[in-house]
Amino acid sequence: MEKEKKVEYNNRKVFTLSILIAALYAVITVIFGSISFSAIIQVRISDSLIPLSYNRRIGKAAIYGTTLGTIVSNVISVYGFYDIMLGALANFFASYVAYVLSGRRSNLTKILATISSTIVVVFFIGIMLFHLVLQMPLETSLIGVSIGSFISIILLGTILLFALEKVYR
Length: 169
Known about the structure:
Blueprint: H1 2-31, H2 33-36, H3 59-73, H4 80-101, H5 107-133, H6 138-167
Helix pairs in contact: 1-3, 3-4, 4-5, 5-6
């Protein structure tokens, strides 16, 4: 009976945190819409939330939250249905990669998690969405998404992750 209550509490906690992260992701994306949906250099500041999935205490909530937040925010995307689907898949797998790497607890692994997440986003958005679906030149799409993801996931996401780890281990 006690174990069931703990599981129920944990499920509610993950659900609540997921919704909060999704809302934060969507609001940040919309506020910075001009750079969040740019085809030249896409700096999605909200992607800085992806590395939070490395933190085991909120990891699952960060996976669900960034995925749901992408779906919600991409409803207004000029790239349409493909951006909703590919963006959600990109954030799901990018967050999941960071979560899987969280089994090893070191600063180097945290940085590796953000780099791995960036590679996933560049693949899904740079190659699949911009190049294959929207027919942009491969070099342009890779460079634009790589620069933006470096800023948002690696730089801002790493800072956010290290700050979170100090407060919420």
